[in-house]
């Protein structure tokens, strides 16, 4: 699944379960994530760090839930390899939306399989 397809999938799944009058703002989510990626990046496969950034933007802009404390995420050695991704990685990891590749490594550059991406969206939408 490409990054663009993943973003579309999140929005489509959300629109199927959320009534229009719910007050959730998927437009601001879409605008934010579009600022992250160039056209070529949108065509690329989804890495764990990019999935975390996209899902974290969804949690903030659409679902509007507050951040949780970093507990288990502190032990992920690779969390700061992408400084702009660190909070997104921590929040999605702490909530069980995206699992680590190993006990002390998130695997930020690992490409996620389509089934794992769909599962992460399902877990995210459970917060609505």
Task: Describe, in plain words, how this protein is organized in 3D.
Helix content is 53%, strand content 0%. The longest helix has 16 residues, at 48-63. The protein is built from six helices and no strands. The model has no long low-confidence stretch (mean pLDDT 93). It has one domain (3-125). Helix 4 (48-63) packs parallel to helix 6. It has helices at 3-17, 26-36, 39-43, 48-63, 86-94, 114-125. With 128 residues, it is mainly α.
Task: Set down the secondary structure blueprint.
Blueprint: H1 3-17, H2 26-36, H3 39-43, H4 48-63, H5 86-94, H6 114-125
Helix pairs in contact: 1-4, 1-6, 2-4, 4-5, 4-6
User: How many E strands?
Assistant: 0
Query: What is the terminal-to-terminal distance?
Result: 24 Å
Low-confidence stretches: none
Classification by helices and strands = mainly alpha
Instruction: Please write the string of helix (H) and strand (E) elements.
Output: HHHHHH
Total individual domains: 1
Strand content: under 5%
């Amino acid at each position: 699944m490409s990054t663009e397809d993943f973003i579309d999938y999140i929005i489509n799944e959300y629109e199927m379960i959320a009534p229009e009058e719910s007050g959730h703002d998927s437009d601001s989510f879409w605008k934010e994530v579009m600022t992250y990626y160039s056209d070529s990046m949108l065509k690329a496969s989804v890495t764990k760090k990019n999935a975390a950034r996209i899902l974290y933007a969804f949690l903030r802009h659409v679902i509007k839930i507050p951040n949780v404390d970093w507990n288990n995420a502190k032990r992920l050695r690779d969390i700061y390899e992408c400084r702009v991704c660190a909070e997104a990685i921590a929040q999605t990891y702490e909530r069980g939306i995206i699992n680590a590749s190993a006990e002390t490594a998130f695997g930020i550059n690992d490409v996620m399989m389509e089934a794992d991406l769909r599962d992460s969206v399902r877990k995210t939408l459970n917060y609505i």
